[in-house]
Input
Amino acid sequence: MNRVYFDNAATTPICKDVQEAMAQAIGNLYGNPSSIHTEGRNARAAIEEARKKVANYIGASIGEIFFTSGGTESNNTALKCAVRDLGVKRIISSPLEHHCILHSLDSLESAGVIERVNVNIDQEGNIDIKHLEELLQSSDVPTLVSLMHSNNEVGTLLPLEKVAALCEENNAYFHSDTVQTVGYFPIDVSKTPISFLSGSAHKFYGPKGIGFIYVNANNQIKPYMDGGAQERNMRGGTENIYGIIGLAKGLESSYEELDIRRAKTTSVRNYMKEQLMAHFPDITFNGNQENYHYKVLSASFPPSDKADLLLLNLDMAGISVSGGSACSSGAEAGSHVIGALHGDSPRKTIRFSFSHSNTKEEVDFAISKLRVILPEMAV
Ligand SMILES: Cc1ncc(COP(=O)(O)O)c(C=O)c1O
Output
């Protein structure tokens, strides 16, 4: 066994059928999608076919899907356009969100254009629904709720339908960062009242640097990126056609094979959990262990000198994992999520995150290496 990749929440490898679809497009579709000649029209048709696919898989209409450069741009667009164009003056969110949400909120708050409120959370990362309801009922100020569907570090899931219904009842807009769940869980915006949601291809076996935002047709927002008439005047710039084709193919495979992939990933995740518990009795797990994203397993080891270098030692042993979140720097900085859940804990947190291509043999390999790296904790 050469290397084991257990970091699929940071990003996923591009799967074969996506590679093939993209390679074919790179070879054939070179026209500018805004040109009216045949090459241009062919490129335009491929983009619109991709948009239709994305819309169909999440129950949206075609006019509600806009391609972006990824989850970060989609999340920035949702929050900032809601404030600029929809009159939102208050945003309810949580300290467990991804940095692209937290830092967008920092900038809106420091510009003095929003009141920022955090909903209470418990130690597993569940939001306090009662508190959310109280917050929604306590003010008439136009409000947006922004809460992620699955936490990327600990995997706790949000009860999406319940939160969406609560927002609708209280006339609040609802944005969900669904970057970790699009392609992994069925999402149907025709049944769940959501104002905005965000997707990113590299989390579902597509390429990096391409994503989408769903904007409910009732929400008339203005362009986030000024420029040409691309994306129906919403986002100027010649489209990332190869990325868009890769995104749609990645989403298609993910949804077509959802049940099989889910079963395989869940069984590897749960085997890893069992094995960790059997060999490291002092291990603890972060996040809700009943209502969780099946690709994520966040484990904390007791403090020790060896645990300090765990990420590095695992990498040298051929195992790629992440300490909390690897999205921004790859550096082993303290995790804001683990900090918000457990305070300044000296325990060492590792996020294992799986795909349907991982195997139990890879888990056995990782456990054998962990036993060598942390002999004083292993039994
Ligand atoms: C929950 C969540 N939101 C947003 C992002 C950002 O997405 P992107 O890398 O496509 O900008 C990530 C990961 O990168 C994520 O895990």
